[in-house]
Amino acid sequence: MTAPHWTRLTSEPTLDEINDFFPLAPPTRPRTRPRRKIFLGAKFRDRCFDPKTEKPAEPVIEDVASTLERYGEFGRVDDDPSDDYKEEILPSSVDISLLSASSDCLEVYKNYDFEHQYNENLPTFCNRSEILGAISGFAITFIKGTAGSGKTTQVPQYILDQHARFRKYCNIVVAQPLKIKAIHDAERVSQERNCGPVGRLVGYDVEFDKMTSSDTRITYMTTGVLLRRLIAKKTLKEFTHIILDGVNERDQETDFAIFLIRKLFELNSRSVKVILMSTSFDNVHLSHYFNAQDPDIDTEIPVTHESISIDGGIRHVSDNYIEDLPSLGNIPTFEISNPEISDEAYAIAARLKFFLDKIEKYEEAKQTSIKGQLDPTSSSRGSVLVFLPGLCHIQMMEKRLYNERFKRKLQIIPLHSYTTSENLSDVFAKPNPGFRKIILSTDIAISSFTVPDVKFVIDFCLKECKVWDADTNYQSLQFQWASLASGIQRANCASELLNCKVFRLLPECFWEYRMPEDDEYREFERCSLERIILYVKLLDLGAPTAVLSMALSPPDLDNIERSILLLKEIGALSTITNQKRLDGDLTFVGRVLASLLIDMRLGKLLMLGFVFGCLSNCLVIAAALSKPCFFATPYNQPMEAYKKKLFWAQGSFSDCIALLNAFRAWEHCVDTQQFTRKSDEDAWGRKNFIQISRIHDVKYLVDELRQRLSHFNIRSDDQLHWSSENPQQCELILKIVMAGAFYPNFFEQSVIDETLCVKEMSLLDPTNTVMFTGIPRGKAPLFKDSLLEATRQCGKQKAIFYDGCKAFIQFEDSDVIDTGSVSPAVYLAGKLTETKGKLEIFQSYAEKQPEPGVHNISPPFMYEPVENNKFSVELPNPSDHARFPVEVTHLISAVSFWGNMLLPRNIERLRNIGVTIQTKISSEVNPAELAVDDLVLAPYDDGNGVEYYRALVTNVKPSVSVFFVDYGITSDNLQVDDLRQMPTSLVEVPFQAIKFRLRGILPLESRPKDESRQFVHKILQNSTHMVNVKVYSVVSKVVCVDLFTKNNEYVNEILITKDYCYSTEESRVSKLSHAAWETAESKGAFSDSSSSEKLNDQWVKYDGINRGERLLNSQGQKLSLSAPRSTFQANFKSIINLGGIRNININRNSINSVSINQNPSSGIRTIMVASEIGINQTDSTMLVRNTTLLPNIPDLLPLLCVLFAPVVEFRVDPNQTRYIGALCGLGAFQIQKRWHSMLPDHDIEVQFNTHFKIQDIVVINALRMLMNIAVGSGEDIAGWSQTVIHRTQKLAREKLLLLIQKKRDACDLTSFGSVYKWKQIDENDVIPHQVSDSRADRKDFYRLHDGILLNDFQA
């Protein structure tokens, strides 16, 4: 069987067509100066050794003056991002010590005062001579000293002053893990030396922030920045002294920096002095490591080193344990296998902070009795340093203290790695008079900062560690017991000048006998190594497994293997096997990702954003996700913060798009100069729950990322090109790009049984109603006030229903926040579960006792309005004609609109309303009395002049907004002076505007909403906005109808035929209403306008039969109930191979932490994508962050997997007549004639629910070709002009929309026999794509798909 010529997968578009579309020839890039590429390992050894004598070759000593002229003053090279990861700039043969011969290099010593007075109270000062002697006499020096001994700030100054005294050149770098610490130390040393602002003699260089100059001789860096500079230069000789601080932290970058410094030192940088400093480390282990023979370097010269320990002096600290605090609460149980903070421990810690006043008063009294007088300095309240394992625990502790902070005069200051430089000053500042400073800190206070006024230390004896999960390849933050050594370091954080106390919140026996002696945690051994492996590949040292085996603490081989596979999945390493499963060539994508300093998947988001023309938006999203979230969530306003986040999402249900919209709004205010003062910007931030300092950080990062990408010619003016396109279409493309970047972090919403859900809700509508359970049977009316108060902040309440032990709160519709078909109040009610947990519900009324001989029998289904609503709405009733005319007054969307019934009674009412307004227009409204829900007369210009109409006030400040109740139109930005009082005779007239919805159809989310709406608008124009409707049901005052034009055209069907909508079943509530409507219609039972409220005759209005007098909260019964919920709330499950066996927990700060099935009857499962995934401590739950819900498009999930998976193998049915699915992943490798999955845990088996054809593979291959050409090679895009970039993006967007918006016929799901198994297709049935060995088919990035020959070609 042979395939006809038209089945070739490249029939559209061909590679020749793409070549004709834009040039593929790589341009030539002129170089400004010659550079020599330096290779390490064997290649470097070949260059440095004479092959004849097998001895080191004679070094070439270049003239110092010419060197300075060629490579910059003082031999320093500007850290330009464009030079990252390129050839070595400073020749390895030039020793930086030779630069001391140049007088220009020493000129800096004349500009500053080097007669510096050191702080003699610091322990480091006593060891000054010993430290300088060791550094001068030995190549490597180990310095160990306690926190606060002055290592980080004093040792660099000792070295600088010594070199200034002897007129010798120096360039000192101090590297440490934390950015905030580096900036703080630079500012402190600069201030201490009085040498001008930071950036002159003393500077810093951290991620995305740099303050240095040609005068800088001490540079504080983060370890990551130092690593990138060493990788770029492949030598240490840029510096004279490299000080690596915080070695005991043993984070990944520090461990790799130790390895790289050792490697380069032995290779070509023996003249550089290396100093390793820490509060505690094993000197013997480090000595053996630096003396170990490197197999890649032929040298027998030993490395000389010296160790120095700085005595921190004797601290007067008294240890206390939890059994010493019996009066503060019950002692919790402690288990070595269960490291956690119990509620009892939190409570004891909170009470202990309040108890410290008594302790201080006792100490003062004791001191007075001994000395005869009170020490004047003891009256101040000592600061408290509380050690907590992680940020979440800091927030929990802060929440417990929040309400008492003013009463107890507490100044609460969080201290963690996300603390900004501005907030850091609060840690060291004196508290306000009479206040006690409470510092809630992670271990950052041990290694990074010394707070001088700490008198009390409270230690939970826990720490937070990153751990890699071997099953899922995801990282998690787990809690472990801190070691004894760590506990001692925490105690030493107390001030030496005060009589300090340490409270360890665990038993003394547990501390002494159960706690580990030393820290066993090493990030290098237990965390994912993607960035470290990229560093190894950039250095070209060899296979990562071999290189990393020479680290100080070599990582596990499985960890290296999985990290390599994850890099291949992202596209940073080649996916071509070639016997290199545990290795791979570095791709262009990998080089770009290594230069961006952000998470790998966020870097890929930028690459795909460039391809599809949304780079500007992706830059904002990537920067916002790389920084601490700038959305504020105050402890006392969690619901308001969540509501504002829903507002920023604008119906997208995306954390990423919410961040983007908020950033764009802030940026617009800045650009239009709306913030005339800083206070204006701060006020805007408070109003919109945005932290201004953090959004500024995002702005800086956006600019930095844009600059770094521009060096690779990755740039795009997409806002200019695509601003005129449909916003919904641009949002769809952006969501698809996010899905491609975050692949395979896909989740599928669980299926819910709509019938059971509605039954559980007692036939009420789950889209606008929430349910309380657990109330004593028949007693729910007695708790009415408390139930309403618990949900008042969710939204405007309409009615409360009682059914046995359940109570239901029904909310009014709101258009302020777009949450789809579900009311925003339902989402906010679901959020109550997270913010409050259990709700305390108090009995509001006493139970009324029946009279003797009378039994109070309440009906099972009762309701009562929340308040006596003085307004009513005109609704159709079964006595009206089955089909009646309607005038459309306002089109909401393609499937919903506002209109007026054109029945005689309605026409007469509208006429009377108009006449009354014209003849009895009243006086102006009193601004002081105007409130929301007031009925007024408001002006509206309908094109024929301004007229007044009845309107309901929906907003008062800062401007007035109204809803015209007879026409369904809203108007904003009105002034109070524009309004008029409502004539009394019109207040009781029902609202004439009715909201209609088209029956049985929903808009296709792949089509822009505005486009669909415009199509319906044209139909209505042709029908002069006069239509006929047939009522199907009435649910929550929305009339569901079949819509017909004047010419009897069935609009519902037209929208389906024209691919603007798809057919779907009506909801269960709508079907029940339809059945009740038909019954009433057949009986002719109702004739009044409120009949729709009576159609469900099971509900009876509550008459207060068992409700007595009102009670105070302390008098009645108290219940602890779960927060209310909608039965449409749904969970998610992961679609990767091993994801299905784990629960999914969406981060509580995510918009989708409350997930509700918008339309369970549609049959389309909602897909969620997440940028970050972790694992909980027990490996049972996946923790999902930064989520986005994708549009409900048929077969969107398999399309995304086939489009963005590295390797895809299609599935066909047993008869080989159609495609039924695909296996997506990294592919397979062969061992002994058996195929094994490369990364089985991340394999995804998808099934097609529609007819997927070979033409779809053609379009997908075209998109993969465009991605390969655009970001598969730096040479391909290096010379592209903006015009070529724009044309490429336009083609990519067109092809993507063609793939996503294509209408495909539905088909039954068919299972494939051997799931999650590769190589199941006979090679004779494979249709090759025939574009091999070209830049369009990059097998190291997105390899093109082969098709399968089908028996039925038409399928």
From TrEMBL:
<keyword id="KW-0378">Hydrolase</keyword>
<dbReference type="InterPro" id="IPR007502">
    <property type="entry name" value="Helicase-assoc_dom"/>
</dbReference>
<feature type="domain" description="Helicase C-terminal">
    <location>
        <begin position="351"/>
        <end position="540"/>
    </location>
</feature>
<dbReference type="InterPro" id="IPR001650">
    <property type="entry name" value="Helicase_C-like"/>
</dbReference>
<feature type="domain" description="Helicase ATP-binding">
    <location>
        <begin position="132"/>
        <end position="299"/>
    </location>
</feature>
<dbReference type="Pfam" id="PF21010">
    <property type="entry name" value="HA2_C"/>
</dbReference>
<dbReference type="InterPro" id="IPR035437">
    <property type="entry name" value="SNase_OB-fold_sf"/>
</dbReference>
<dbReference type="Pfam" id="PF00271">
    <property type="entry name" value="Helicase_C"/>
</dbReference>
<dbReference type="InterPro" id="IPR014001">
    <property type="entry name" value="Helicase_ATP-bd"/>
</dbReference>
<keyword id="KW-0347">Helicase</keyword>
<keyword id="KW-0963">Cytoplasm</keyword>
<keyword id="KW-0067">ATP-binding</keyword>
<dbReference type="InterPro" id="IPR027417">
    <property type="entry name" value="P-loop_NTPase"/>
</dbReference>
<protein>
    <recommendedName>
        <fullName>RNA helicase</fullName>
        <ecNumber>3.6.4.13</ecNumber>
    </recommendedName>
</protein>
<dbReference type="InterPro" id="IPR002999">
    <property type="entry name" value="Tudor"/>
</dbReference>
<dbReference type="Pfam" id="PF00567">
    <property type="entry name" value="TUDOR"/>
</dbReference>
<keyword id="KW-0547">Nucleotide-binding</keyword>
